[in-house]
Design brief:
Blueprint (H helix, E strand, L loop, with lengths): L5 E3 L2 E2 L5 H9 L8 H4 L11 H58 L1
Antiparallel strand pairs: 1-2
């Protein structure tokens, strides 16, 4: 799971592109299947079998699904925290407004 996509539990950071996300998720599974590896020379490395490729993509699907669940949770927490922060700020502004109004009335 690419933890670098989360600044913290409350602040999700979206991937730069679909390719960037794919490479980040696939690299730990099978680096030879990343888009970066496609342009690299084989240097005598064995070509993955169809079974190995299928297994890598099955694992990729699992990791991607877990990433999406984690990202959705982070986005929901971020939205909740943002709304709470805005409500707190508005409540503080309301209190300040009432105090200013009371001061103005008392000054009459």
């Amino acid at each position: 799971m690419p933890a670098f996509y989360f600044l913290s539990d409350q602040h999700p950071l979206l991937p730069l592109s679909g390719e960037h996300l794919y490479n980040a998720l696939m690299e730990p599974i099978n680096p030879s299947l990343t888009t970066i590896a496609f342009g690299m020379p084989d240097n005598g490395k064995a070509v993955p079998t169809t079974e190995a490729i299928s297994a890598a993509f099955a694992k990729y699907d699992q990791v991607h699904d877990a990433y999406v669940i984690q990202l959705r949770g982070a986005v929901e927490r971020y939205a909740h925290d943002l709304l709470q922060s805005m409500e707190t700020r508005d409540a503080r502004n309301d209190v300040d407004g009432v105090k200013n109004l009371e001061y103005a009335i008392n000054a009459l």
